[in-house]
Amino acid sequence: MNPDSYRNRFQKKMSHLSVNHLLGIKNLTKNDIELILSTAQNFKEVINRPIKKVPSLRDITIANLFFENSTRTRLSFELAQKRLSADTINFSASNSSVKKGETLIDTVNNILAMKVDMIVMRHASAGAAVFLSKKVNAKIINAGDGAHEHPTQALLDAFSIQEKLGDLKGKKIVIVGDILHSRVALSNIFCLQKLGAIVKVCGPLTLIPKHIRSLGVEVELDLKKALEWCDVANMLRIQLERQDIKYFPTLREYTMLYGLDKELLDSLSKKIIVMHPGPINRGVEITSDVADSKQSIILDQVENGVAVRMAVMFLLAGRQG
Questions:
Q1: Consecutive sets of 10 residues in the chain, 321 residues long: mean pLDDT of each?
Q2: Whether residue 50 is found in the same domain as residue 33
Q3: How many structural domains compose the chain?
Q4: The pTM is what?
Q5: Domain match, 164 and 75 both
Q6: 34 Cβ partners below 8 Å, 6+ apart?
Q7: 214-220 — which CB contacts under 8 Å span 24+ positions?
Q8: What domain range is 272 assigned to?
Q9: Is 280 left (phi over 0), alpha (psi -120 to 50) or beta?
Q10: Do 118 and 142 meet the contact criterion of CB atoms below 8 Å apart?
Q11: Are residues 267 and 308 in the same domain?
């Protein structure tokens, strides 16, 4: 199909998102999530064709504002924007006037003065994207705000599981590791539950939020039991950069109790899918032979991230109102 026909094809099939911004999964409806995932499926077909580019956002300018370090998410968004033919501005706080004391609002307003239509932002402060959405006239996509939410990661995780297992209703997913400091965990819980999956968390009690059960999530402290129960294990890294105190004695002890190695994986009574949002601390939460095994879909997650982020930006840019 000619790339120029894709936009018309999608516009005929799509309905609109119920939101103006992607601030978190909590704000989305099940229909929103399903629309994003189905649109992502179409874009995955596009990025696997010889001509990987479509003109869907050639009239849109997008600013990538990263106030925290990022590799996968930033590159994934940048590539998704290029695939959609958008014009982009890339901003890094470490090389900006933020170092001179400029506020977030001043930084963003200066960028908006350049006629930017959409902002993709990662920030260390929880709620930064919500705050910004109330102050500026542009579409905001939250690329991670503190330990709060990381919506596009949850969407690409759900998309990746769907590719392997189909409908998520009734599927059992366990999220293992540093739940307390993880924005990925919270967004995944919201997303998976809205799609009908059953979610458990597993890790040291010191890294499990006290009120996690209020979200309808069960807690399992024994990794082997959690893995025997689940269809999918999403292994999170220990976020030492967010920990101001020690939550467990040593990394070695954590690995002994909550690290996934090939011996443990092979000992299970069934084959499970292994995921990881990255970056991987190989030999801590997961060993190389597990990360690179046939049961791992980690590289699928990376590929799917581009398609999902294309879908999110396409749908937000196309919303009327």
A1: 46 74 97 98 95 94 91 95 96 62 81 92 94 92 95 98 97 96 95 98 94 96 98 87 57 91 97 95 94 97 98 84 32
A2: yes
A3: 2
A4: 0.90
A5: no
A6: 195
A7: 215/189, 217/189, 220/174
A8: 151-298
A9: beta
A10: no
A11: no
